[in-house]
Amino acid sequence: MLKARKIELLAPAKNLECGIEAINHGADAVYIGAPKFSARAAAGNTFDDIKVLAEYAHLYNAKVYVALNTILSDNELKEAEKLIWQLYNDAKIDALIIQDMGITMLNLPPIALHASTQVDNRGIDKVKFLEDAGFKQIVLPRELTIDEIHDIATQVNTPLEVFVHGALCVCYSGQCYLSQALSGRSANKGACAQYCRLPYTLTDSEGDEIMAKKHFLSMKDLNLSENLEELLEAGVSSLKIEGRLKDVSYVKNVVAYYRLKLDEILNRHPEYIRASSGHSTYTFDPNLEKSFNRGFTKYFLHDRTKNMWSLDSPKSVGEPIGKITEITTKYIKINSTKKLHNGDGLCYFNNRKELEGMNVNRVEGDVIFPADIPDVKKGTYVYRNYDHEFEKLLSKKSAERKICTTIDLNEIPFGFSLQITDEDDNYAVLNFEQEKQPAQKDQTESIRNNLSKTGTTIFNVDAVNINFAKSWFIPASVLSEWRRQLTEKLLSVRKIAYRQDIAPHKQTSHSFPLKDITYLGNVMNDMSKRFYVQHQSDVRQPAFEKQTQSNVPLMFTRHCIKQSLGWCPREGQEKHPYKEPFFLVYNSTKLRLSFDCKNCEMKVFNQTDEK
After folding, report:
1. Is there a single domain that holds both residue 358 and residue 458?
2. Number of domains present in the structure of the chain
3. Residues 105, 20 share a domain
4. How deeply is 408 buried, as exposed, middle or buried, from its count of CB atoms within 10 A (0-12, 13-18, 19+)?
5. pTM value?
6. Does residue 610 fall inside a structural domain?
7. Would the pLDDT of 332 be above 50?
8. 98-141 pLDDT, tens per residue?
9. 291 in a domain, yes or no?
10. What is the reported pLDDT for 246?
11. Which residues are bridge partners to 405 per DSSP?
């Protein structure tokens, strides 16, 4: 018999509004940036907003995880410790997502610690180590295959978290130093300048141009919506949506889409239990293509997939529409089954394979009148990256999340008793002194209808059981007041019933998988150094941000330019006519590529560092 386990849909929150809507649209948990020390420095949030979000989420037994996943300097540790206590004691958050192992050496409250993907948890030895070190959830790298995920899951008991949707970093998380090296903006400090999204010219060692102005390091966006069941079978417990910089319409649409997909699976598999309460209904039909995307890829889920990069543009292409069949000086026509709207935004790749856009003034049947007629040829494929009508739906209230309840109405000697019980077996009972008046006619349906009207509360009444020996008349105004008091009391009960997980942190000293820690260990402070020494390792180099290293890889990627161009020797692809090493050039920046074919890894070096 399969062991039951909780399954979590984990959503991003740029701010309080996004967090609330993620919950409304079906998230079981939300992750949000701390006021400081978040790996998305532009997505920090106030303490008060995090507290309000946690209070709201907990009504649905949903959790709030705070990302404090940068590496910290010595003078930041004390402030981080104080912040963690405040987040746990006052904001009542459920877990902290961290990268810096120095945090584990602080005086911490009994808060659950989650190992960020920035920790580079790609191997079973590392994951086992983190489990033994007391981490309560571990975020796996995006690059892992389904078999690699399964192998890890079979050897640990700690819940595993896997990204299922959103933007992809080309480099293993936590192992990218390109932004720090080129601009002093550290990805590990939350300030990545995204050099991976720039257009580079690929040249060989003799300076011959292979391809010009292409986005060789820019990946398409991840979309594993069709592989959720496969991931659960592999042992994943938390399905994570990327997007702490995304707007609220993105959060609404993507969370709703995955909620519906996941619910279909949960309905078929009783061994999977939803991690929170309530049921969401929507005013729109979720569609992933209508939110920001660079085109979709399954990345390495089934080993290497073709065309995983967004080679021509790092911008959102959106939803495929169709080919232009006619173009005049006033209008265009597109062969498409999809309805376009006034105010839509369309885009296409021009003859130089650059992404260009046009705005739709109005649509009349199959005739489209753009604001400006584009310089485009017949047969060009068009995408919609802004659906005006869809965004208008999302700009309003687009979801409602309700908790199922049952109400029992009983006679008692001096009046009536009401009990409401929710789907989590919380209940509230109120007794009302009320003179009993025999009803002139059967009141069953009117009483049931009145008590079922829960309005703007978080509750939905599925059933009203009226247990009377005879039919009694109760005024509608009295019933309405009883219902109001009853739902308010149940709401109070739910607030009191929610409990944070208590996860006391204990110091450990088991052996770390690596004996020598280089700059790749991201050791930024003395506490982090002490952690590794305590776990029987020697810190040979501090973090790159603390001491710049020369002639070292600045990126480690499973994505391989040679493989994507069809020149992979391991796959028996054709040989290229160019002389290695290859270089990526952008203005004065020159990056050297190194291909470790044995380990299927590409490394990126800063050529200006080389002697």
Report:
1. no
2. 3
3. yes
4. middle
5. 0.96
6. no
7. yes
8. 999 999 999 999 999 999 999 999 999 999 999 999 999 999 99
9. no
10. 96
11. 422, 461
Q: Which of 44, 47, 41, 37 is nearest to 93 (CA)?
A: 47
pLDDT at 260 over 80: yes
Is residue 1 over pLDDT 70? no
Are 322 and 166 contacting, i.e. CB atoms less than 8 angstroms apart?
Answer: no
The domain of 476 spans 399-497
> Is there a contact between 138 and 129 (Cβ–Cβ < 8 Å)?
no
Task: Give the tokens for residue 595.
Answer: 């291909």
Site of tokens 């040249």: 203
The residue written with tokens 């000086």 in the block is 329
Are residues 251 and 106 part of one domain?
Answer: yes
Residue type, 22: A
The residue among 448, 478, 497 that closes a domain is 497
Considering 335, 368, 394, which residue would you say is the last residue of a domain?
394
Per-residue pLDDT reduced to its tens digit, 375-411? 899 999 999 999 999 999 999 999 999 999 999 999 9
Q: Which two tokens stand for residue 579?
A: 């002389």
pLDDT band at 44 (very low <50, low <70, confident <90, very high): confident
Place of tokens 């050039």: 585
3-state secondary structure 128-194: HHHHHCCCCEEECCCCCCHHHHHHHHCCCCCCEEEEEEECCCCECCCCCCHHHHHHCCCHHHCCCCC
Q: Name the DSSP class of 446.
A: H
Query: Does one domain contain both 330 and 243?
Result: no
369 inside domain: yes
Quick one: 67 and 84 in the same domain? yes
Residue 68 sits in a domain whose CATH number is: 3.20.20.70
